[in-house]
Amino acid sequence: MTTPSLYAAREPIFPRRVSGWFRRLKWWLMAATLGIYYLTPWIRWDRGPGLPDQAVLVDLAGRRFYFFWIEIWPHEFYFVAGLLIMAGLGLFLFTSALGRVWCGYACPQTVWTDLFILVERWIEGDRNARVRLHHAKWNARKWRLRITKWTVWMLIGLATGGAWVFYFTDAPTLLRNLLNLTAHPVAYVTIAILTLTTFVFGGFMREQVCIYMCPWPRIQAAMMDSDTITVAYREWRGEPRGKKRIEGAGDCIDCMACVNVCPMGIDIRDGQQMECITCALCIDACDDVMERIGRPRGLIDYLALSDEPAERAGEAPKPVWRHILRPRTVLYTAMWSAIGLGLLYALFIRSDIELTVSPVRNPTFVVQSDGAIRNIYDVRLRNKLGEARQFHLSLTSDAVLRIDLEGGDGQLNVDVPADATVLQRVYVTARPQDEAATAHRTDLRLWVEDVDSGERAGRETTFNGRVQ
Amino acid sequence: MSEKKVDETTGVETTGHSWDGIEELNNPLPRWWLWTLYATIIWGIGYTILFPAWPMISGATAGVLGYSTRAEVAARITEHQERNSALVEELISADLAALMPSNDLHRYGVARGRSVFQAQCSQCHGSGAAGAKGYPNLLDDDWLWGGDIENISLTVAHGVRNDTDPDARFSEMPAFAEILGDEEIESVVEYVVSLSAKDFDTALAASGQRVYAENCAACHGDDARGDRELGAPNLADAIWLYGGDRETLEETVRYSRYGVMPAWGQRLSDADVRAVSLYIHSLGGGE
């Protein structure tokens, strides 16, 4: 028995090239996801003068989030929170129905690692060539191949980090500034960090990120059950493994194709494993072999573990829709849709005028020399349009109350610049002989009306009297 | 050390921990993971050498870079003051009464005045400036010494009835216990009550009116509407600095009141005095 080492070096993995249905799907998804990531900041969107022309922009300095025709203000951040909850529930839904599809197809770590392996194969050759190169001594050829590979990886990393910063400011301007070295240092630092992490994560750490760094695999395990359709090996059909001509052998000829193509370096025939990201490349590899040796496809396949006893007994498995349609997935779908509909509803009813009314509670009221009672309110007026507007303030109440504005000289109109918020102090007064002056609380509603368009919005608040 | 146990299936040594028969394998850590750990240790040692870190008896180690958050704050404050110096000059010389709320100088003055108020004035006048018994409410429309910015500024700079500033607002009400008899005091209190209340003793108030005319009208005025030159309160309105019930009024007449406010001009800069005046004026009671 040897004493275990304190640390273990990574076992290098050299995934072999594979072709098939899932591989093609992954190429398409890679093109789509990378395309969306790199191109989105360059979509232009005309919002009129003074506003950014970028379709998707996270304007941290201006505290706005622009998404095509939708403009999110800081107080509407619940939209973003809602979308994040939907993303979470969506992940729950997909995981409970189809296992770790996110990990296998859409996770940035998977997509970029896939791209890096593609580059590696172009430069150093397929699995066998790469294994040979790995064991070869460092000579001119090995240096040349390695430096070429690392350079291309670094360029991809640079493009990755570079694309990220374009989401936060006007992309063409930033690109110009980046090139003539006048951009903000934050941009360079962000690009540098993301370039390096992409280079290291995609080039060197790869499956280690999924195994040791990522919390999702552990969380996703809780989303799965025996009805989840996941990548698995039909043990009852494959075992015992052996050469094709051996009497009584299963379909698995132990060709190791499934192991050689696996980017996580595992053997799916050992059963469900934490490392498996369900990328399904082993399915492509095995189906290819099964076809060549004249056996039915699907020795390794997307299947639900609960079907195993039926299949072993030679019965038909449950239809796919019965695996997918179960209380768990229905519940996730219902929750996901409810939040989605709620957000859509909120999006369509929201107005271009908004106000918040904060009654000043320190003190709750002020007695005037004639005995009148005055309450003070801080009213925030938000003009979400791209042009300056004049708002008229008024109030309605069952009680007799008078409204005045600070600095208004009897005027009740406030000018609010385009796309801005104005804080306006509002005084509401009850004459001493009126009931509101002595009542504990009186309801009232403050109204804001666009002088030109007549559009208006209101907020409920209360008036505090001097209780005697 | 207990005997080492090895898991049969994997050939890996176990830690000896077992839960419900499930044993924990003592797998080695990934190498990069350990390197990261060592790197953070080295970084941590370097950090404590470069920056203030180790607590000693009278302070912490300074660090070879000489970095100090206090110095950084001081530098930021200086930078801030330099940036605002033009506004401060303007604040000292501008006609504050003519500034509109939308004006930049007005906003700067009010913001600066708010911090001055919270630090220096809120102890007596309250954080919302609503005052308390004996400490005037700065939000209403009643001003003992005048409520325009010039008058507020004068009151802030020199204070009220203090011995330290010859320009302080000054007035003194006599303690009438030594001058008037009990009945006269009772009647004059009834007269003052009658000015703003509905229920009062008509006969008593009528006799109090004579006492008032002889003793009080000189300062509070024939119609009891007070006099700002003397800081004499209006006795006919709804606002009472010490309270408007008979008992409180009797105490006031008998022993008088003597509220003191410090001369803030001695402690605050001109800019601060003007800023806090602007702030108080903007609260809603200013004239």
UniProtKB/TrEMBL annotation, chain A:
4Fe-4S ferredoxin-type domain location is: 242-271
Q: Give one Pfam hit by family name.
A: Fer4_5
Highest taxon above the source species: Bacteria
Keywords, in A-Z order:
4Fe-4S, Electron transport, Iron, Iron-sulfur, Membrane, Metal-binding, Transmembrane, Transmembrane helix, Transport
Establish whether keyword 4Fe-4S is in the entry. Answer: yes
Q: GO molecular function: any one? A: 4 iron, 4 sulfur cluster binding
Identify the PROSITE patterns for this entry: 4FE4S_FER_1, 4FE4S_FER_2
One GO cellular component this record assigns the protein to is: plasma membrane
- What residues form the membrane-spanning segments? 25-43, 77-94, 150-167, 187-205, 330-348
Q: Which NCBIfam families match?
A: ccoG_rdxA_fixG (TIGR02745)
By what name is this protein known?
Cytochrome c oxidase accessory protein CcoG
Species of provenance? Algicella marina
UniProtKB/TrEMBL annotation, chain B:
The note on the cofactor says:
Binds 2 heme C groups per subunit.
Which Gene3D superfamilies does this chain map to?
A: 6.10.280.130, Cytochrome c-like domain (1.10.760.10)
Tell me the superkingdom of the source.
Bacteria
Instruction: Kindly indicate whether the keyword GTP-binding belongs to this entry.
Output: no
Signal sequence span is none
Which subcellular locations apply to this protein? Cell inner membrane
The UniProt record gives the binding positions of heme c 1 as C121, C124, H125, M261
Please state the gene responsible for encoding this protein: ccoP
Name the UniProt record assigns to this protein: Cbb3-type cytochrome c oxidase subunit
Q: Which residues form the Cytochrome c domain?
A: 108-196, 203-284
Its annotated pathway reads: Energy metabolism; oxidative phosphorylation
